[in-house]
Specification:
With 170 residues, the protein is mainly β. It has three helices and eight strands. The protein has a four-stranded antiparallel sheet. A four-stranded antiparallel sheet has the order 4-7-6-5, with no helix packed on it.
Length: 170
Protein backbone atom coordinates (compact mmCIF):
# COMPACT_ATOMS: atom_id res chain seq x y z
CA UNK A 1 0.00 0.00 0.00
CA UNK A 2 1.34 3.43 -0.99
CA UNK A 3 1.94 5.83 1.91
CA UNK A 4 0.31 9.25 1.87
CA UNK A 5 2.87 12.02 1.39
CA UNK A 6 2.66 15.60 2.61
CA UNK A 7 1.23 17.84 -0.10
CA UNK A 8 -1.55 20.43 -0.41
CA UNK A 9 -4.78 19.53 1.41
CA UNK A 10 -3.26 16.69 3.43
CA UNK A 11 -3.95 16.64 7.15
CA UNK A 12 -0.61 16.32 8.99
CA UNK A 13 0.23 15.71 12.64
CA UNK A 14 3.80 16.09 13.85
CA UNK A 15 5.89 16.66 16.93
CA UNK A 16 9.06 18.70 17.02
CA UNK A 17 11.79 20.14 19.15
CA UNK A 18 13.98 23.17 18.56
CA UNK A 19 17.61 22.63 19.55
CA UNK A 20 20.27 25.33 19.89
CA UNK A 21 22.94 24.34 17.37
CA UNK A 22 25.82 25.65 19.51
CA UNK A 23 24.90 24.32 22.97
CA UNK A 24 22.70 21.35 22.04
CA UNK A 25 20.11 22.67 24.53
CA UNK A 26 16.45 21.90 23.72
CA UNK A 27 14.78 25.33 23.58
CA UNK A 28 11.24 24.17 22.83
CA UNK A 29 9.59 20.78 22.54
CA UNK A 30 6.10 19.97 21.28
CA UNK A 31 5.28 16.50 22.59
CA UNK A 32 1.58 16.34 21.72
CA UNK A 33 1.06 16.14 17.98
CA UNK A 34 0.43 19.47 16.31
CA UNK A 35 -2.14 19.10 13.50
CA UNK A 36 -2.68 21.26 10.43
CA UNK A 37 -3.74 21.09 6.78
CA UNK A 38 -0.70 21.43 4.52
CA UNK A 39 -0.91 24.34 2.07
CA UNK A 40 -3.82 25.89 3.98
CA UNK A 41 -2.06 27.31 7.02
CA UNK A 42 1.62 27.93 7.65
CA UNK A 43 2.18 26.80 11.23
CA UNK A 44 5.99 26.85 11.06
CA UNK A 45 8.55 28.86 9.09
CA UNK A 46 8.36 28.57 5.27
CA UNK A 47 11.74 26.78 5.28
CA UNK A 48 10.42 24.06 7.59
CA UNK A 49 7.09 23.80 5.75
CA UNK A 50 8.94 23.37 2.43
CA UNK A 51 11.09 20.55 3.83
CA UNK A 52 7.94 18.67 4.94
CA UNK A 53 6.69 18.39 1.32
CA UNK A 54 6.79 14.79 0.04
CA UNK A 55 7.44 13.26 3.47
CA UNK A 56 5.24 10.60 5.10
CA UNK A 57 4.21 9.31 8.51
CA UNK A 58 7.18 7.89 10.42
CA UNK A 59 9.72 10.18 8.75
CA UNK A 60 12.05 12.22 10.95
CA UNK A 61 13.75 15.28 9.53
CA UNK A 62 16.12 17.96 10.76
CA UNK A 63 15.98 21.49 9.39
CA UNK A 64 18.73 23.96 10.34
CA UNK A 65 17.47 27.55 10.72
CA UNK A 66 19.48 30.76 11.12
CA UNK A 67 17.11 32.79 13.31
CA UNK A 68 18.92 36.02 12.39
CA UNK A 69 17.40 35.62 8.93
CA UNK A 70 13.89 35.39 10.46
CA UNK A 71 14.06 37.73 13.47
CA UNK A 72 17.08 39.89 12.68
CA UNK A 73 20.00 40.45 15.05
CA UNK A 74 19.52 41.02 18.78
CA UNK A 75 18.68 44.59 19.73
CA UNK A 76 20.15 45.31 23.17
CA UNK A 77 17.98 48.45 23.46
CA UNK A 78 15.04 46.05 23.93
CA UNK A 79 16.59 44.65 27.14
CA UNK A 80 15.36 46.67 30.13
CA UNK A 81 16.26 46.26 33.81
CA UNK A 82 14.28 48.09 36.49
CA UNK A 83 14.16 48.17 40.29
CA UNK A 84 11.90 45.38 41.55
CA UNK A 85 9.68 47.82 43.48
CA UNK A 86 8.78 49.53 40.15
CA UNK A 87 7.51 46.26 38.69
CA UNK A 88 4.04 44.91 39.55
CA UNK A 89 4.21 41.62 41.47
CA UNK A 90 2.52 39.60 38.72
CA UNK A 91 5.50 40.40 36.43
CA UNK A 92 8.20 39.20 38.81
CA UNK A 93 8.50 35.65 37.49
CA UNK A 94 10.92 34.47 34.77
CA UNK A 95 8.99 33.40 31.68
CA UNK A 96 6.10 35.84 32.15
CA UNK A 97 5.06 37.59 28.94
CA UNK A 98 4.30 41.32 29.16
CA UNK A 99 2.55 43.19 26.35
CA UNK A 100 3.75 46.80 26.32
CA UNK A 101 2.57 49.80 24.29
CA UNK A 102 4.71 52.74 23.17
CA UNK A 103 3.56 56.35 22.85
CA UNK A 104 2.51 55.70 19.21
CA UNK A 105 0.10 52.94 20.29
CA UNK A 106 2.28 50.11 18.90
CA UNK A 107 2.42 46.97 21.05
CA UNK A 108 5.36 44.64 21.60
CA UNK A 109 5.71 41.51 23.68
CA UNK A 110 8.48 41.37 26.28
CA UNK A 111 9.57 38.35 28.30
CA UNK A 112 10.81 38.44 31.89
CA UNK A 113 14.28 36.89 31.65
CA UNK A 114 15.80 37.57 35.08
CA UNK A 115 14.57 38.37 38.59
CA UNK A 116 16.67 38.91 41.72
CA UNK A 117 16.12 40.63 45.08
CA UNK A 118 16.71 44.09 43.60
CA UNK A 119 15.71 44.04 39.92
CA UNK A 120 13.67 42.58 37.07
CA UNK A 121 14.98 42.27 33.50
CA UNK A 122 12.67 42.06 30.50
CA UNK A 123 13.67 41.39 26.89
CA UNK A 124 11.72 42.42 23.79
CA UNK A 125 13.87 40.33 21.45
CA UNK A 126 12.44 37.06 20.21
CA UNK A 127 14.02 34.32 22.38
CA UNK A 128 15.44 32.70 19.22
CA UNK A 129 17.05 35.97 18.06
CA UNK A 130 20.76 35.61 17.35
CA UNK A 131 20.68 31.80 17.49
CA UNK A 132 21.16 29.05 14.99
CA UNK A 133 18.75 26.23 15.71
CA UNK A 134 17.78 22.84 14.36
CA UNK A 135 14.12 21.91 14.04
CA UNK A 136 13.86 18.16 14.64
CA UNK A 137 10.46 16.98 13.41
CA UNK A 138 8.74 13.60 13.55
CA UNK A 139 5.77 13.12 11.26
CA UNK A 140 3.04 11.12 13.01
CA UNK A 141 0.08 11.23 10.58
CA UNK A 142 -0.50 12.08 6.92
CA UNK A 143 -3.95 11.59 5.38
CA UNK A 144 -6.47 13.31 3.14
CA UNK A 145 -8.03 16.25 4.94
CA UNK A 146 -11.82 16.49 5.12
CA UNK A 147 -13.59 19.46 3.54
CA UNK A 148 -14.23 20.84 7.03
CA UNK A 149 -10.54 20.48 8.01
CA UNK A 150 -9.48 22.26 4.79
CA UNK A 151 -11.92 25.08 5.57
CA UNK A 152 -10.60 25.46 9.15
CA UNK A 153 -6.92 24.67 8.42
CA UNK A 154 -6.79 21.80 10.91
CA UNK A 155 -8.65 19.17 12.89
CA UNK A 156 -12.14 20.26 13.86
CA UNK A 157 -13.10 19.29 17.38
CA UNK A 158 -14.74 20.82 20.39
CA UNK A 159 -12.26 22.73 22.48
CA UNK A 160 -11.89 21.78 26.12
CA UNK A 161 -13.03 24.36 28.63
CA UNK A 162 -10.09 26.45 29.80
CA UNK A 163 -10.23 27.52 33.42
CA UNK A 164 -6.88 29.30 33.63
CA UNK A 165 -3.54 29.49 31.91
CA UNK A 166 -0.57 31.58 30.90
CA UNK A 167 0.89 32.01 27.45
CA UNK A 168 4.66 32.00 27.16
CA UNK A 169 5.94 32.81 23.66
CA UNK A 170 8.84 30.88 22.15
Amino acid sequence: MKKDVIEANKYVELTYEVVDRKSGQVLTAVEYPLGYVHGVNEILSPTVMGRLEGRSAGDRIEVPIDCNAIYGPRDESLVITDHIENVPEEYREVGTAILMENDRGETKSFLVTRVDEKSVTIDGNNPLCGREVIFKLEIKTVRDATEEEIEHGGKVETAPEVTSGRVVPI
